[in-house]
Amino acid sequence: MSATPTAPMRRRAMLAALGLPWLGLAACATRAPLAPPAEGAAQSWSGRLGLVIASDPPQQFHAGFELTGDAQSGELRLSSPLGSILAELKWRPGEALLVQDGQTHAYPSVDALSAAVTGTAVPLRALFAWLRGVPEEVPGWQADLSGLSDGRLLARRLSPLPSAELRVILDPA
Fold first, then answer.
1. DSSP letter string over the chain?
2. Could you give the C-alpha distances from 57 to 12, 14, 38, 162, in angstroms and in order?
3. Considering only CA atoms, which of 89, 42, 43, 41 is closest in space to residue 65?
4. 16-25 contact pairs (CB < 8 A, 24+)
5. CA atoms of 90 and 161, how far apart (whole Å)
6. For residue 3, is pLDDT > 50?
7. What pLDDT, in 10s, does the model give residues 89-115?
8. Which of 3, 54, 114, 125 is most buried, judged by most C-beta within 10 A?
9. What pLDDT, on a 0 to 100 scale, did the predictor assign at position 14?
10. Is the pLDDT of residue 160 over 80?
11. Mean pLDDT over each residue of the chain, to the nearest integer
């Protein structure tokens, strides 16, 4: 259960399959004000996410998502616009797993796991705090939590290059 050399090819194929349909849906999304869960409460979010990496060539990743658990132990399920499961990311202390196409691959950290799937390390641990409205500091990242009451989160990575932008649109409660 280890990362294979075909992981970059699989990631590119997944990125291409996802395409841009989520961008149109994101423009139409509205929701009632969101009350973020308190720390220690059962945490679960779902919606859509988009990640744009300013690489050469630029990479875009768009998917539906279900995020459960917490920074120490959780699961992120990514799905296509039609609802099929693209990948499941699972982590707990000492373990970070990618379940995709019936195969399980182990990674040394959650950051390495998210990089294998999206092309860059996304701060999944901080994402839990951000979704609760807590401005957790992550080196190189800036999170804009001002849209959380409308179910929107924007986080930008300015360093290291290439820069990246993560947009999250939460489903109505």
1. -B--TTHHHHHHHHHHHH-SHHHHHHHH-------PPPTTS--EEEEEEEEEE--SS-EEEEEEEEEEE-SSSEEEEEE-TTS-EEEEEEEETTEEEEEETTEEEEESSHHHHHHHHHSS---HHHHHHHHTT-----TTEEEE-TTGGGTEEEEEE-SSSSPEEEEEEEPP-
2. 12, 16, 40, 11
3. 89
4. 17/80, 17/86, 18/60, 18/61, 18/62, 18/63, 18/80, 18/81, 18/86, 19/62, 19/81, 20/60, 20/62, 21/62, 21/81, 22/48, 22/50, 22/62, 22/63, 22/64, 22/81, 23/50, 23/62, 25/81
5. 26
6. no
7. 999 999 999 999 999 999 999 989 988
8. 114
9. 42
10. yes
11. 81
In the block, tokens 């901080």 appear at 126
Amino acid at 9: M
Look-up of token digits 């990743």: 61
